[in-house]
Amino acid sequence: MIHRHIKPFLGVEESKIVTKILILDNDREMQVLLKVGLEREGYSPVIAADHLNALQTLPTGQYSLFIFRAETSFDAAWEFYCALKSNPALPTTGVLMLLRYPMFTEENANKLRQLLKNGDEYMNYPYIMTELLGRVRNVWDQYGHPLPKGE
């Protein structure tokens, strides 16, 4: 909300606000649900074909947020997250990691605390769309992106 009020003072033109979100989820049904839910909120979601496509597409600077679902294990998801955060071309790209695996170890809890300190978020899968949208707005705000106009 606050970004809508300060935007005119920052000289940001409405048409230049980046509201694109890259989504990596291999489940076609979830892709559609995420796309529709995010579009209703005024975001511009794009579906990535696979992990390699996401890693090649994200550094273009066109995306304010990357949502991905861990497909194999927490360790693989964490490694992918670390690869994203170590990329100097992505300083203002937030991450929302969707997890479906039990992760009740102290080591994993420490990693998730670091993710949250970075301004990013995670959610356990399956999730409720309203909660996911709240997490998206939280990451969006953490990275200082102006909020899009929703329906």
What do we call the CATH homologous superfamily?
A: Response regulator
What's the β-strand tally? 5
- Percent of residues in beta strands: 15-25%
Average pLDDT, all residues: 84
List segments where confidence is low: pLDDT < 50 over at least 5 consecutive residues.
1-16
Helix content: 40-55%
What's the total helix number?
6
Strand order of the largest sheet: 2-1-3-4-5
What's the story with the biggest beta sheet? Answer: 5 strands, parallel
Q: What is the fold-level CATH name, i.e. the topology?
A: Rossmann fold
Structural class: alpha/beta
What is the CATH-assigned architecture? 3-Layer(aba) Sandwich
The Rg value, from CA coordinates, equals: 15 Å
Concise description?
By secondary structure, this protein is α/β, with parallel strands linked by helices. It has six helices and five strands.
